[in-house]
Amino acid sequence: MANQKLFTDFPPVDREAWIALIQKDLKGADFEKKLVWETAEGFKIQPVYTKEDIGDKQWLTSNLPGTFPFARSTRKLVSDWSIRQDLDSNSISEANQLAKEAASNGVTAIGFIIENKTSPQKGIPVNSSKDLETLIQGLPFDQVTLHFIAEERSPEIFSWLPKDKVLVGGLGYDPFKILLKHGRSGKHSIPVLKEILETFASSWPHYRGLSVYSSTFRDAGSTISEELAFTLAAAAEYVQQLKTAGMDVDTIASQLMFEFSIGPDYFLEIAKFRSARILWAEILKEFSPKVESSLHAFLSAHTCRYNYSAYDPNVNMLRATTEAMSAAIGGCEVINVSPYDSILKTSDSFSLRIARNIQLLMKHESYIDKVVDPAAGSYYLESLTDSITKKAWEIFCEIESIGGFLEGIQKGIIQKKVADSRKKKEENLANRKEILLGTNQYPNGEDRVPELNQNKTLGEIDSVTGETTCERIFEFRAGADIEEIRLKTETFAKKSGKTPTVLLLPMGDLKMKKARAIFSQNFLACAGYKVVDPGSYTTPQEILQGLKETIADVVVFCTSDEEIFGFVDSIFGILKKQNPNLLGIVAGNPTEQIDNLKSKGIEFFIHIKSQHLETLKSIQKRLGIQ
């Protein structure tokens, strides 16, 4: 009985049968509009996937873990990863203590963020070999790997590394990232990089000197396919230049680490990491390495800064959890979860502990590290992997056709692609087509940004001066524009002693007044206003009484389109006489009555098609908040 196969007892169900059942449930609604959506990459996501969707993609499912092209994994038996934590402090001794605490609480990879000239407000002030010795003193190097985030100071850190210790980890040096972030990189970066890699290869073969950061593109707005293509193009450029400089391909490959951002698109991110291994194996094969392990992409992943929010930062814990899951299921070798409050301040022991525990839960309670490629056999994920691979390869080939990565950035082609994708994202965020929970949807009205310490601001401080040799790429956060509006409201409230108050006026049709009151509260609370919802009114007299109890700066009329004009006409004139500065808003878009309503003093109409960001800016300006 134990060996009896039961699948033959059930007839196979083809795709057409599934679609027919779905269409029956839709009761005549348009299948494409209801259930099919298009990614930013340009391909469609179906509501159901079957074996037929794999089609000629059997190469994705037929290979075993640890075999070319490594879609499933570069490892054959386990899917373990290093738990990494990056540390920032303005004190070397404090950073050392934080590292020891992390190492004794489950962290197996320590990253130190080093202060540099272009971002002096951030980082550990390491300025000598003695400082570095103090920073890493007492760390259990047999248990943890050592990483640095030092940007243009990476060669300096390299020169100070202790020669008497056996180190494993990564230097984090990426000259191309520095070039794109600051518009210039250090002099002779490739010869310097070559020296670093050759030294590591001979002295510390398990210490990787070269990192290629995808955050350069992803945190600046690129799509997943662009992120993958540009990151791989940068890596291929490094291999080509270092090989031309006389380095062995296998040595270069052993020294290279991919540092990928993990975005919020759960399944697409899993597919991205599988695709990265496939494409890198194909790319490096063209350089004719002698060792098969050179084809392995070493993937380090860190949660994306792009979608971390300053307001309602606890939500960042949830974002980090799904992102870390994507990286683990996607087969990354190292995972780094940023603390939930890292946007606002230098993280304390509590937020660092929560960040660690996300990964510890994944290992010790969910056992994700015990299964190689949990995504294998999922028709959906196999299809996504194939779609992303093809799209990223198309973009990669386009970059190669113009001369490679450096030519692409010198001509501004890569920057333009990133800028175009960023513009689309900003538009989607501004119009709430892309939701950032707690920021542009369902805000926590009681939340306030704490007093910022000297090491943090809501925006990026960048002190780069002088000439640049290429167009720069600027990182951004999804919630920054809305947060700026809300912060202005908070600043205004502190100076004036009063938070602008919005009073909702629900009256008339039960269904419409409730729906529009809820919509209005969500819409306007994103700007930091105090929104008062009295529940419901039945007569204009009740409204007048309500305004005696609540001194409002803004009133929002919430009712049906059929009732709105009579509602406004009966009451708003009286309200304006009592308070000439009162701002009147209508929830809804009664197109046939807009001119009449404006003649009665209504200034704004808010509805699902409103440009959320621009409307909030205009309302804020009207209220005199600068």
Give the quaternary arrangement of the chains. single chain
Tell how many strands the DSSP assignment holds: 15
Overall pLDDT: 91
From the coordinates shown, what is the CATH architecture of one domain? Answer: Alpha-Beta Barrel
**Main sheet makeup:** 8 strands, parallel, barrel
Strand order of the largest sheet: 3-4-5-6-7-8-9-10
N-to-C span: 76 Å
Shape, per Cα inertia axes: globular
Taking pLDDT < 50 over at least 5 consecutive residues as the criterion, the unreliable ranges are: 452-457, 460-465
Q: What name is given to the CATH topology of one domain?
A: TIM Barrel
**Which CATH class of one domain is shown?**
Alpha Beta
Number of helices: 24
Helical content (DSSP H or I, runs of 4+): 40-55%
- SS-derived structural category: alpha/beta
User: Any idea what the radius of gyration is?
Assistant: 28 Å
As a percent range, the share of strand residues is 5-15%
Keywords: Cobalamin, Cobalt, Isomerase
Protein name: Putative methylmalonyl-CoA mutase, small subunit
GO molecular function: cobalamin binding; intramolecular transferase activity; metal ion binding
Family: Belongs to the methylmalonyl-CoA mutase family.
Report on this structure.
The chain is an alpha/beta fold and 626 residues long. Among the domains are: 12-48, no CATH class; 171-410, TIM Barrel (Alpha-Beta Barrel); 489-622, Rossmann fold. The protein contains 24 helices and 15 strands. It has helices spanning 15-26, 31-35, 51-54, 58-62, 92-103, 129-136, 154-160, 175-182, 189-203, 215-218, 224-244, 249-254, 266-285, 315-329, 349-364, 379-401, 405-410, 413-430, 480-496, 510-525, 540-549, 561-578, 594-599, 612-622; strands spanning 37-38, 44-45, 82-87, 109-113, 145-149, 169-173, 207-213, 256-262, 299-303, 334-336, 501-506, 530-532, 554-558, 583-587, 602-606. An eight-stranded parallel β-barrel has the order 3-4-5-6-7-8-9-10, surrounded by eight helices. Helix 13 (266-285) links the parallel strand 8 (256-262) and strand 9. The longest helix is centred in the middle third of the chain and has 23 residues, at 379-401. The protein starts with 14 loop residues before the first helix and ends with a helix.
